[in-house]
């Protein structure tokens, strides 16, 4: 097979920029919107943006996923040099591990938030935040 | 009566086991001894738990005739799928959109749920048709180019070729 | 008015953040001696785990995973507490009417396959992408399929609780056994095998299986609680 | 070796996973087990703390990987002090809520699981030496916090909880952003490692990361623009949970801010920033507190004000200042729960929960009222009680650093506090109840827990030397950044060679 | 090469667009579909950034579970953001 | 042999791409939801199947897994589109009919069902 | 040769994505939008498989497989909601 390259450095700052844009959109939704569900949607969008940013930070040009699969190892003996050489061509695994945790935690928070929304609706019969202001916001 | 249900249960577990084992090996696709043994154990345990849902077919599907017709079915299905796609491409690409849609119905002769589902799926993927609902054994089909609304003719037009093969596979 | 103010504020924030972040070059590593090199060599060599991310999640930073599992457990508990519905009546329906026969027949055959897929994902967590969380989520999705398709499909809440608790206890006990057998919490005390075999990685597959069961039970319980929440 | 710091997290988690199973066996176990766990941990914590004072910091490496590669727990004189304090309070709160208000609120298994997790999250924040792990613990703590705030079935509690949730999750996103910035520069997540490498970061990254950290953790620590959730949550949550918030959660938040500013980064002007934020928080909160007519909201604002005071004291930056801040924290951690616990019985029967309804309760509930008054005196800093020594040490610290403005401000604030606390005490003792009511008598265990707190306050008031040596140790260990780095990283150095 | 560039830019733009769409859309169901699109695209982006584990998690959690939780909330509350939109759309 | 398989696989991939594109075009051009579902399902199913099969042929050791994905797609896509069509009918979006004599046999069954539910 | 074909395929997929996105934005009824989401899912699965080929990693296929399964359930959820069953 001839070498097919998928060079994503051509977008340069595209990933950073769109992650920041998504973060901003999410923040806007969480801060300005009046509907409770919209606020939660805004939060989950914000979270997506942060996750994308984290993964983008960990990306290394031309790297591959940090999985030492048989296909990658072929018949190399398992020596320190070989592993190091392979590891140098891999993207940073740490941000990926962090994002995994962050995604799951974010889902938990979203679930709690939405159950609160359901309960608020049961008491107030509306989702508009202005009409729920019993306590001073 | 008692034995028959037990027999049914056993066949169901067995078929489920077989099915899951095949699926497992397809997932791992490495055929190392460790993987295969683990697959056997896991699929057996899972088969015990999920066998009450797995009532699609009896042992009859392992009969050579059934297997043969299954392969035939796959080919017929693929040909129908490709035909349907070219048909759809023709309709989509032609500027005037030559369509005359409507919903027609017909009765299927198939018995088991699974066979009916296969039929409905096949119909969805064949030229110009989309199964909308299945009530008892009446299939409601959205047809992009309605030629007739007589159930018999519709049946002959849309479902005949699949149904015959499915009848042979499931031996009904 | 508030909108414009917020937009302005966000614009300033975004421009500043972009300004700072753009000083990083895309696709470059910005530090010289990070922890990642250690993980990338120790993972395959010492732990014999092919998927370094799994090695990080379960072993190097296994404590985070314990916390993460706890977060999901808490979310389920919190959801039950917040929705404060008294125990739903027996025979309460999750959906109002059953789906069409086609979906029902399809889900019957897809359900075992999806559960098997979930099990595959968490059993092979150390070899391929995926692991306990993904596998557990897939299992929960399988149950969701059944709940959607059938009107009267029920999952025993008691069984879910027991599975969840037992899995959580197993996780902590495995950790504490590391404390007893080795010297620290969550320390690997099992033989590690050879790289890229199914039976390798010492404790990692075991912990991931436990996590898979726990997450599956938790998310199923969460969906189940939420689906029965109908006024 | 008495035990390992990991047990502070592992044992409560084990208990939390076990509690649902106990629920199937015997309902009462659900309530007893958390108490046993907390008592055990308290004993462990005290013994570990004594050991640490003699032998130096214990660093627990989880998974057998030395820092910076693995996660580590640091049990130093400073964190040990906070842990012991938190566990003590947790035990008191458990005792109080063991049969809390049998009438309409039965503490169920969910309540105890969440309470246990709230405590565990806070202890994890204090003990951990890894920023991402701290994020995870913050999430554990805040999710339990959200759920506990909404534990009452009223509608306002859900609203307060939602508010808390929105602010909490926004701030945790900022925390994640800060972690991203740090990781992108240094490639490590361990606090000691970051501290030793912090000079390698580009300055703008350092400043931005610090700001994000303070925004992210300020939510738990109730710094001024981020404390909107606190009064609602305190007033809507069940009584013991208000106490837990003010006694445990806030301490964890303050701890993490302190850890970040003192150990992780030395950015020019951070201390001044802390003083400024603390002063704004203090002034705004006290002004708000004086206007409140609901008792729990008043207590909440007072709590925010105290946190501002603590921040100011930390911001002085000298050893004396840190000592004063720690003294204030300990004082607040003992007194505010007492106030919350007693106030929640004082207003138990009223629907409004306002101060007006406290009229003349001193006759009906003499002991509870007395304890409330004791707490009020202690927190404003009247001479014989513990609060006085705390404020006094703060004033001396400020005077030694020539911060006259702070002295003036503290005195002014004390006057304000006197005004609004004595308004309440005045109503309790010197007003007449209009109609005869039958107030709810506290249960015995609640009474015991409150009396224990009261005795402690009085004891510390008369013998402040009992704790000052510990506080000095703690503040030294906080300020000695080099020793922290060395303690944590030395194990790793030996492994790699 | 240029096609990869276009491909990536379309994906990035689609993500940002879906984010804006789901914030702006008055019908909450459509907003939820928008979030589904976000996590779909995000998943491919993670894939492109060589993070298959994260792509898997995002797919598993974002596509099915978040959707069902949001849908349950919508079913228990209202489908439209404002009261008057309900009449317009119905 | 390998080269031949690669070329065949590449052609399959190209065919799949074209069908995916046609699916997209179909859902844009068709006049109502049912027709769009028809166009979308058929074209994307075949497109996806052929593309994945093409990849499987190009890299023969991947074939088994590719076939698994194909089977999953072939199995689940029609079901979801069927569910979608039914849901669309239940929301009272009746199909677009070209002339007034258009056939809608489902309407009776649907109305009967509704009557049963009400009574 | 193969490279050119893959380029072209990516081009077609981009067009398909754009069309689906347009339908999601525009599409009068909810069913249209979900259909477009479904189409987008299938295109994504195919795209993932193709990308796995481009990156030459076998393990990436798992992601596509799971994506296909879960995307189906995601669509089914919304369809069931539209039916009024949820």
- Rg of chain E over CA atoms, rounded to whole Å, is 15 Å
Percentage of residues in helical conformation of chain F: over 70%
Kindly report the average pLDDT value of chain E: 85
Cα distance spanning the termini of chain F: 68 Å
Q: How many discrete structural domains of chain F? A: 1
* Strand residue percentage of chain F: under 5%
The dominant shape of chain E is flat
* Helix share, percent of chain E: over 70%
Coarse structural class of chain F? mainly alpha
Query: How does the major sheet of chain E shape up?
Result: none
Count of discrete alpha- or pi-helical segments spanning 4 or more residues of chain E: 4
Major β-sheet of chain F, in short?
Answer: none
Number of E-type strands of chain F? 0
> SSE order of chain F, as H and E?
HHHH
Order of helices and strands of chain E: HHHH
Number of strands of chain E: 0
Unreliable sequence segments of chain E: none
Spans of chain F with pLDDT under 50 lasting ≥5 residues?
Answer: none
**Rg of Cα set of chain F:** 19 Å
Write a structural description:
The complex is a heteroheptamer. Chain A has 137 residues and is mainly alpha-helical. Helix content of chain A is 64%, strand content 0%. Chain A has one domain (8-132): Helix Hairpins. Chain A has helices at residues 14-32, 36-58, 70-73, 80-88, 93-124. The model of chain A has no long low-confidence stretch (mean pLDDT 85). With 172 residues, chain B is mainly alpha-helical. Chain B folds into 2 domains: 2-55; 61-170, no CATH class. In chain B, helix 3 (64-93) runs antiparallel to helix 5 (151-170) and helix 4 (113-124) crosses helix 5 (151-170). Chain B is elongated. The mean pLDDT of chain B is 83. Chain E has one domain (2-81). Chain E is 84% helix and 0% strand. Chain E is built from 4 helices and no strands. The longest helix of chain E is centred in the C-terminal third of the chain and has 25 residues, at 52-76. In chain G, helix 1 (2-26) packs antiparallel against helix 2 and helix 2 (30-55) runs antiparallel to helix 3. Chain G has one domain (2-83). Chain G has helices at residues 2-26, 30-55, 61-83. The chains are: A mainly alpha (137), B mainly alpha (172), C mainly alpha (231), D mainly alpha (497), E mainly alpha (90), F mainly alpha (119), G mainly alpha (86). The interface between B and F is large, with 41 and 44 residues.
